Amino acid sequence: MALRMDYKTDVWVDWCPGCGDYGILAGIQTALKELNLKPWEVVVVSGIGCSGKTPHFIYANGVHTLHGRAIPFATGIKLANPHLKVIVSGGDGDLLGIGAGHLVALGRRNLDITILVHDNQVYGLTKGQASPTLPAGVKTKSLPKPNLQDAINPLLLALSSGYSFVARAYALDIKHLSNIIKQAVQHRGAALIDILQPCITYNDVYTKNWYAKRVYKLEEEGWDPVVKDPSEREDKLAAAVRKALEWGERVPVGILYWDKTKESLEDRIMRRIPTYTEKPPAMQAIEVNGKPVVDIEKILKIYSDYVVEVGRR
Ligand code: SF4
Predict the structure, then answer these.
(1) Which domains, ranges and CATH numbers included, belong to the chain?
(2) Which atom of ligand 1 is nearest to the CA of 201?
(3) Which residue's CA is the nearest one to ligand 1's atom 5?
């Protein structure tokens, strides 16, 4: 099969016509193309939800995993082969509900993975229940009464968890979105992009018209998110937190915070294992001349001796 550098597959894209997910898909494909990455250098990982279908539509390695577990899968892939560009594409329910613990853990590790949050404030695949990003008091069309729970702010969560690249984008501004994805993928460390994505079927509050009147670009107002020296970190972080709270009449999009000085997990591992990137787990032999490198018999013996010992106690 010919190499598809447009990153498109033949799989029928079955999102509702007009869904913001189409913009996110185009944003990813454009970014990968412009970065000139080969499909085998990229892995897209998803969980469950409308966004979970994304890897099927991208001509690259892909894994459609369990609900809330895209980040652990992605972490294993990246640690096994740090040369891969790993992107997680997940919904607000998947990443900030059942998967929230994993999202926090990735920030603490600052592992070089890009998280794309398809943020439409509802669980679209299961008919529009309130997701963790729907503010309290808001009633979307599937809810019989206004939402009782407060919303999680994905930007604040990412900033406080340790992500070194934190941004917000709008799904229907594909050029702007793909530029941010490009920078996030090239960034060495954990990157999170909260992508505002209208769900045309179930969210009749945060619609295309709602966003059109409010979204503005940070860079057009002179915002400088970059930490160039660790001494700037505290001030830049505090400014990003204030900006992350802006919501209502004006909704900022762009890169809020970009710490170029923070060590990634890969850097920390390399201090302990200097050959890590040269010989990561995925590139090590598992057998030589038909014999496994690891003596599984020995491991099983240690394990069975341990089980017997525990049984005696
Ligand atoms: Fe998109 Fe909403 Fe349809 Fe899901 S239900 S495909 S999020 S418009």
Answers:
(1) 21-270 (3.40.50.970), 276-312 (no CATH)
(2) 8
(3) 124
| Nearest CA owner, ligand 1 atom 2 | 199
Indicate whether residue 120 lines ligand 1 (CB < 6 A): yes
Strands (E), 124-236: 129-130, 165-170, 191-196, 215-217, 226-227
Which one, of 78, 3, 51, lies nearest residue 276 by Cα?
78
Reported confidence tier of residue 299, pLDDT bands at 50, 70, 90: confident
Q: pTM to 2 decimals? A: 0.93
114-119/85-91 β-pairing: parallel
The end-to-end CA distance of the chain, in Å, is: 60
Centre of ligand 1 from the C-alpha of residue 200, in Å: 6
Q: Which atom of ligand 1 is nearest to the CA of 18?
A: 8
